[in-house]
Amino acid sequence: MKYTMTEISHFSHPDHKLMLENSELLFKCEGCKEEVGIGFRYRCPECDFDLHVYRAVPAPNIDHPFYTKCSFQFLSSPPGDGLHTSAADMKYTEAEISHFSHPDH
Ligand SMILES: [Zn+2]
Ligand SMILES: [Zn+2]
């Protein structure tokens, strides 16, 4: 893995910039609290604050499945007597809706 950002701002430590460091010394990640890491970390030298690189910079190729689909579909049967399963219901099941949980689209 290649890390190109050597200096970042992170919401978990907004007062200072965090520097990319590669060290053989163990560090305690402030994001995980208990975990101990070694190697690359983002570090604030002033505060002795360390963060796993993967915590500070999310991998760019991870797509949250929730956001890949911008239109939701009804998967369950519409309310009714359940007898009309033809054209009307097809139309209903393919309708696009806006949903409060995904208001952007
Ligand atoms: Zn961590
Ligand atoms: Zn700091």
TrEMBL record:
The record's annotation in Pfam families points to: C1_2 (PF03107)
Q: Where is the DC1 domain?
A: 11-53
Show the SUPFAM superfamilies listed in the entry. Cysteine-rich domain
Keyword field contains Repeat: yes
Q: Does the keyword Zinc apply?
A: yes
Q: Any idea which UniProt keywords this protein has?
A: Metal-binding, Repeat, Zinc, Zinc-finger
| Coiled coil ranges | none
Which superkingdom does the taxonomy of this entry point to? Eukaryota
Classification via InterPro entries:
C1-like_sf, DC1, Znf_ZZ_sf
The Gene Ontology terms for molecular function here are: zinc ion binding
Q: Where is the signal peptide?
A: none
Its recorded name reads: DC1 domain-containing protein
User: Which organism encodes this protein?
Assistant: Trapa natans (Water chestnut)
Which lineage is the organism of this entry classified under, starting from the top rank?
Eukaryota, Viridiplantae, Streptophyta, Embryophyta, Tracheophyta
